[in-house]
Amino acid sequence: MTDAPRDPVADLLAALTLTDTGARTSEDIFTAPSLWTPQRRVFGGQVMAQAVLSAMRTVEPDRFIHSMHGYFLRPGDIDQPITFSVDRIHDGRSFSTRRTQAYQDGRPILSMIASFQDDDPGLEHQAAMPIDVPAPESLPSAADILGAIDHPAAQYWAKGRPFDMRHVDTPVYLHASGDQVAHQAVWLKCLERLPDDENLHRAALAYASDYSILEPILRRHGLGWSTPGLKMASLDHAMWWHRFARVDEWLLYVQESPNAIGGRGLSTGRIFTHDGMLVASVAQEGMVRVPGVQ
């Protein structure tokens, strides 16, 4: 797809529908479309979710993804489909490991390793969800904040994304207000009900996890996405799925940046259900370049 999205959720489902090419060498080969973005570069969360689904397609259905580690190697082109090759590295008694490479024009744009596990019993504990967080229904959506702004990026954030994103604090879309802190929380939910496919929900959660994870870096330095000359790009992304949750129900994404140096910033995140169950943990390092800052 190369046009501006008309139905973001339908576009999401189309992007997460893989085509098995039937090619078999030492790897499994799949293809998937690219979605439109105003920057005309493939959204990192999209190619990551597609890579996750590609790996899922090669694992027994009773074995679920619990972690992935990926590197973004090159910008993706929205005018081209993406080819995914999956190497079945290992299948053990309880765990399976897969390596997925995403290609355009024969060059890799993402390299990822994912691990899968049987549903086994074991010790259990989790970090607590923050208390006194406003309900998502009480907060403005991106459409409320940006919908009247006549700019392609603003309209895309307001109406073109398949997820409703609601910042607990004032968002940093245009500028950062309030205290310059290196943490924030964002409620998120898919705009429409999704099919009852657990792997689809896990992949969609990976998709959404890339939206705002680097924003605590901007907030710490009083910057917004519209800062003139700002350049940001995801470098790598790690994710751990702890418990299953639907992405078409409200989830709280609690984020923090412990460090920024050398034109890079690191952010971590925890994703909770509305009733406080820890669903996933996330870490990402990104390139962050600001004019005038060496």
Automatic annotation (TrEMBL):
Belongs to the C/M/P thioester hydrolase family. GO terms for biological process: acyl-CoA metabolic process; fatty acid catabolic process. This is Acyl-CoA thioesterase 2. Transmembrane segments: none annotated. It catalyses: a fatty acyl-CoA + H2O = a fatty acid + CoA + H(+). Gene3D superfamilies: Acyl-CoA thioesterase, double hotdog domain. Homotetramer. The keyword Transport does not apply. Residues 33-117 form the Acyl-CoA thioesterase-like N-terminal HotDog domain. Residues 176-287 form the Acyl-CoA thioesterase 2 C-terminal domain. InterPro entries: Acyl-CoA_hotdog, Acyl_CoA_thio, HotDog_dom_sf, TesB_ACOT8-like_N, TesB_C. It holds the Pfam family Acyl_CoA_thio. Keywords: Hydrolase, Lipid metabolism. The keyword Lipoprotein does not apply. GO terms for molecular function: fatty acyl-CoA hydrolase activity.
